[in-house]
Amino acid sequence: GVRFTVTRDYGKTADDKAKKLIQKLTFATISVILLIVISLGWREAIVVGSAVVITLMLTLFASWAWGFTINRVSLFALIFSIGILVDDAIVVLENIHRHMAMGKKSLAEVIPPAVDEVGGPTILATFTVIAALLPMAFVTGLMGPYMSPIPINASIGMMLSLAVALIITPWASQKLLAKTHNVEKEDKSAAWLDRLFRRVVGPFLRGDAGKRSRRLLLGSVMIAIMLAISLVGLQFVVLKMLPFDNKSEFQVVLDMPEGTTVEQTGRVLDDMARYLGELPEVTDYQVYAGIAAPINFNGLVRQYYLREGANVGDIQVNLVGKSQRDRKSHEIARAARAGLDEIASRFGGSVKVVEVPPGPPVQSPLVAEIYGPNYAGQQKVAGEIRKLFARTEDIVDIDDSVEVSAPRAVVNVDRHKAALLGVSQDSVTRALQTALSGEDVAYVRDGYQKYPVPVRLELSVADKSELDSLLMLRVAGLNGNLVPLTEIVTVHDAQWEQTIYHKDLLPVVFVTGDMTGRFDSPLYGMFDMVTDIADGELNGEEIEQRFISQPDNPYNYSVKWDGEWQITYETFRDMGIAYSVGLILIYLLVVGQFRSYSIPLIIMAPIPLTIIGVLPGHALFGAQFTATSMIGMIALAGIIVRNSILLVDFIQQEVAAGIDFQEAVIRAGAVRAKPIVLTALAAMLGAFFILDDPIFNGLAVTLIFGILVSTLLTLIVIPVLFYAFAYKSHQSHTGV
């Protein structure tokens, strides 16, 4: 019978991932509701849960109207957003909850002033988050279209969550909250927080007497920031464009020397396939000799599907499911590389082990483009750079675009002798073409067959490989005489012309590679080689190195570094611009609210504090700082400023009510600590559910550790900074 094996079903894998992410979204929502049950009560949890469900429904509708589909990135955007979508509702609800515990007023009397008290800062805080996220939607290049659902969905969700918090939450609170509260419990909690902040923040206040303590605090924070940044320089935190995923497949790409027969290529592929079959995680593999594998993600990104020729081949390797193996696909591919390379090298071939996805859409993770005045010189420089690649630690899958010199036999027809024998040059050409490539000379039609069967003339493979066999062919002259080719042709040996590659009209030679080992990031290998070339280790020759653009003078030998570096530079440059635009928008928003150019700088002070959490968090988890980590940094700028706004706004309200400035600063921390901690925990819970994803792991680590550390520091640093900024002016106003 016929047996078949399904070797690829991306529809099933996409469906499985979508279902898993929807499950995570559900768990994230439930976890946030449980947080409110524990901290405020079950009635309050119903209010927040209603706000979450309504906001998600409206966000999904808006996302559909915008044209987004339910895919991996859009679902991650919702999971990432779940923690910040409830912030407005939590702040409003917690303030209603606090006001209910303060006096004897009815719920209907408490809600309007409670909402009014936090309405202004909540609206401002929401717009600061949007200001931080939305500029990312205008990033072009690789990451812009790919990540655009995150800023757009989150921004739309924040607008909708604000409307829900100011409309639905007060109404639901009036309908669902108990008319009386455990005032004693609330008083104990408030008293404990008040004592805590007096003990922690109090020593940093005290007018001029606390100046030394404030300086020590500021100095300690600056040292912590510098130590966190040093983790990058010390390589405890590795920079990379995108991390490796954990797929159930990888691909082996083989390039044999030009002129290799497809049979020889097939034999090498078979040897490698037998080696791969011994790996315990491999379920099956497919070998393609002379052609490319059916188009997949790798083929799309690196255009492997265009490969063809007798000297090329692919092996598509399928692994057991993630739950059935201990090693990730990256670890398996890395372990298999040495054995595959040994087999390919034995036959003079070059092999690349390519994972899915292979990373950014570039020719190779490491690419050196060699330019110069003549192609032979460029090839010579490329050979030296290839040796440098080989000498550099952890660089693998080394190859170049220089073709191996392949011999060819040129058949020259003696036209004078051929004319005397009545043989045309066309007859000789057609005879050789028929012998080598074959020709359909007739068709046979059987009555039972739908299509005629061609009768094809062609020499056997064995005869094709022998030039003497070809020259023994006879061609007919004008008189019907048969003339052996040996009588009218001569043969001389030559070399095939090598392909000259061009990029932007300039001739170029490529040297490519990848990096494995501890870093798994080609940036580190590239900069090691940059240093070596700058030190004159390329035969002592001085060669210009370019990083962003092609050389201005193509008449000198130069190297342009490309590959993952180029995409990384462009992506982080664009996202850095988006980050800067977000900070400017946040500053302008806060200036408009507080009517001051100085106070916004204090409110934005926690943004650098996120570094103290983000980089050590990456080092602790062994996570690479990637483009998704940068998205988290941008989001943190808006999320963490919300806390500062709540603190500073409360201080100003208390001072306006006649409270002493120092007392107002301490009370701000004690009163606003609860909603600040609750919103921080909600955001961290949302990020926790994407922590196990290889691609978005950096985003999760950034949010969890950035929010954790910066929130704790904000509750201390912002009150102290604001006090140091304004205490003298308040003393002069009060006559102290």
Kindly list the characteristics that best describe this protein.
six-stranded mixed beta sheet, 58% helix, single chain, Multidrug efflux transporter AcrB TolC docking domain, DN and DC subdomains, Multidrug efflux transporter AcrB transmembrane fold, alpha+beta, 16 strands, 24 helices
Would you write up a description of this structure?
The strands form 5 sheets. Strands 5, 6, 13, 14, 15 and 16 form a 6-stranded mixed sheet that branches. Strands 2-3-1-4 form a 4-stranded antiparallel sheet, covered by helices on one side. About 60% of the residues lie in helices and about 15% in strands. The radius of gyration is 35 Å and the shape is elongated. The protein has 3 domains: about 10-240 and about 570-735, Multidrug efflux transporter AcrB transmembrane domain (Multidrug efflux transporter AcrB transmembrane fold); about 250-370 and about 390-400 and about 510-545, Multidrug efflux transporter AcrB pore domain (Alpha-Beta Plaits, 2-Layer Sandwich), CATH 3.30.70.1430; about 405-495, Multidrug efflux transporter AcrB TolC docking domain, DN and DC subdomains, CATH 3.30.2090. It has about 725 residues and is α+β, with helices and mostly antiparallel strands. α1 (about 10-40) runs antiparallel to α2 (about 40-65), α5 runs antiparallel to α7 (about 150-175) and α22 packs antiparallel against α23 (about 660-690). The model has no long low-confidence stretch (mean pLDDT about 85). It is built from 24 helices and 16 strands. The longest helix is centred in the C-terminal third of the chain and has 38 residues, at about 695-735.
